[in-house]
Amino acid sequence: MLLKFLAHYFYCLCFLLLSASILAQSDGSAYFAEEQVELMHDNDFLHFTDRWYTTGSFISYRKLMNDLDKDHNNKRQFTIQLEQSFYTPSNILSNRIEDYDRPYAGFLGLNNSLTLTNENRMLDFTFTIGVTGEISGSEGLQSWFHSTNESQTAQWNGQIENSTHANLYGSYLREWRLIDAEIDVLLATKPKVALGTKDYFLENQLTLFLGNRNDIESTMAYRQIGTIENELFFALTGSYRYVIHDAMLQGSIIADNSEFVLEPVDSLIFYGAEAYWRTRRMDFKVAYMFSTKRAESTGTHGFSTLSISRNF
Question: Which residues form the signal peptide (predicted)?
Fold first, then answer.
């Protein structure tokens, strides 16, 4: 059943890429878009696993508030995003908590972001509200999905309890164009901080871009809309996160009565490769990412990302 699902996934991706190329046929001239809708999905099925961070689904709407010009020192974009993600132990067949290497956890949230960009840097502020536990719908959605393809159904015993969360994320991005040629080379750094009941961490990300990539205020690398030109580039990325609190392992930082919780490891590393393709009205992103263990009882985990955006 997994191979059948992968085949369907591959055929759908080919169809979308073909449709996008037809829609985006042009002479390469710039296109102006004030809005964008994005569908993004994380999943570990390409690694033939169903554990730890197993799935994340995101639907985003972006709106250009003003462009960067002589009257505005910053290009401003607003984003609203619906997110659902869930985490499972590696042993999804057992109904005994003693057999789990991490607790079941689900999150359903709404993210609201404001991005301020100019020729030199980008500031991003995101406010998140959401819920964990059975009310997040993660247990029901995963159980339904597994029932449709006759695969193994997770037990979801002892999951992180129902709770309401609020979080604030802030990041500062700066980059340098190392080579300006047919194949551009850029280096970017992005410190980030998270404060709230769901996440509490400090992070720094380093990314190397290779290919035909536009400047910071107009590239799809940072989901920038407005003046759009074709892009095709790749990225190697890595980040270090110092974790203070992780509600997907510990429950709410304020008060929590979950049956099974774990302490997160202090240091978490993400790394991987990404590919980007922009064709005027359509943006495509594919990534293959890894994260080191989030708790002492787990291990390094890989997952893939597929993102499709429509600009208008």
Answer: 1-24
